[in-house]
Design brief:
Layout lengths: L14 E3 L22 E5 L8 E5 L6 E7 L2 E4 L18 E4 L8 E6 L2 E8 L3 E9 L9 E5 L11 E6 L4 E7 L5 E8 L10 E5 L8 E5 L4 E5 L11 E6 L8 E7 L8 E6 L4 E7 L5 E8 L6 H4 L11 E5 L8 E6 L2 E5 L3
Antiparallel strand pairs: 1-5, 2-3, 3-4, 4-5, 6-7, 7-8, 8-9, 10-11, 11-12, 12-13, 14-15, 15-16, 16-17, 18-19, 19-20, 20-21, 22-23, 23-24
């Protein structure tokens, strides 16, 4: 596999230099404030300097920022002047990454209370607020945020902001005006959604055309929402379908989407973690789900169960669609227990 396994192993040292070659690492980063296993990682360029950084999320704890100061050299940001309180409520489900200010580089979007904010780690020194996006009501509780060009009419770098209030079942859309200020435009009733760890909103071409759709997922169910076509015919976003696993007693725990059979359509890859399955769905011309493949991820009991650690978590806990074999076809990359496992596309 062409995956670089020169990982930032969490050992000693204030800084870490990660070698290019597999298996070669110099003294790596010590996460002194890490008291339990992370819920997950998010790789993004927080300071917009062209070098990817890493946000490490731990349940009930402040996210840890490992900033890349030079190529393959990282440092933990723990300065009291770093304004880390701005991300104290951030979790994997409550963040997104997008360019929303019209300038070079992407910002970190964080949903909290009845609003979301876009942030950047300014000058490599502290978190700074770029903008704030308020929900329609002070009674809204935003559980997820995303930024998509849903109608292909947004100014460059100013995609529509989507705020999901899962408790009220509302998806609110904010758009930037000529003055570059984001304002509430419309609200869609999308049904209630659990604030699960893997609550997600994706935007991809699921029907084989250039038209993309919004996909919602909350570990129990998902739904597809199609945007306007971009022509002069009045249309509105509307929920098209929801789907629950046909696996007996099955429970969804994670998902991703991407074209893993090279048909120019985004497939939906679901993790059914109670019985350890991957379930792959496609959409027909009527936007209805078609189960296309199902297979076991692993047979043995989970790592936690074998070690007597109680209730197992969702495995694979990380999913990524990318071409890592260099053949021009997207592959499925997973993190399962303590391993990176790749399912290459034939």
């Amino acid at each position: 596999a062409a995956v670089n396994k020169a990982e930032a192993q969490l050992k000693k040292g204030k800084k870490a230099k990660i070698s290019k070659k597999i298996g070669e690492t110099e003294p790596a980063l010590e996460l002194k404030k890490l008291t339990s296993n992370p819920d997950g990682l998010k790789v993004l360029d927080v300071d917009q300097d062209g070098l990817n950084d890493v946000l490490i999320f731990v349940k009930y704890e402040l996210p840890i920022l490992a900033r890349q100061t030079q190529k393959r050299e990282f440092e933990i940001i723990d300065s009291p002047t770093a304004q880390t309180s701005l991300i104290k409520d951030a979790s994997l489900r409550s963040i997104a990454v997008a360019d929303v200010d019209g300038k070079a580089g992407e910002e970190l979007l964080v949903a909290q209370k009845n609003f979301a904010r876009s942030l950047v780690f300014a000058e490599g020194e502290s978190w700074s607020i770029i903008d704030q996006y308020n929900a329609k009501s002070t009674e809204n509780k935003i559980s997820a945020v995303a930024a998509f060009d849903i109608d292909r009419q947004s100014p460059p770098g100013r995609s529509a902001i989507l705020l999901l209030d899962g408790q009220k079942g509302q998806l609110q859309i904010l758009k930037a005006g000529d003055d570059k200020t984001y304002r509430f435009e419309k609200e869609l009733n999308v049904g209630k959604w659990n604030a699960a760890t893997h609550l997600k909103m994706l935007f991809a071409p699921f029907t084989g055309s250039e038209v993309k759709s919004v996909l919602l997922f909350d570990s129990e169910k998902f739904a597809l929402i199609t945007p306007p076509s971009g022509n002069n015919v009045p249309q509105h976003l509307g929920q098209q379908f929801s789907y629950e696993t046909k696996i007996k007693d099955g429970i969804y725990g994670n998902f991703t989407a991407g074209d893993i059979n090279s048909d120019d359509r985004a497939d939906i890859i679901m993790v059914e973690y109670k019985r350890n399955h991957f379930e792959i769905l496609a959409l027909d011309s009527q936007m209805k789900p078609i189960p296309t493949m199902r297979f076991k991820i692993f047979e043995q009991k989970s790592y936690q169960e074998r070690k007597g650690r109680g209730k197992p978590g969702v495995e694979p806990r990380e999913l990524k669609i990318a071409d890592v074999t260099g053949d021009g076809k997207d592959d499925l990359v997973t993190v399962i227990h303590d391993r990176i496992i790749i399912y290459p596309q034939d």
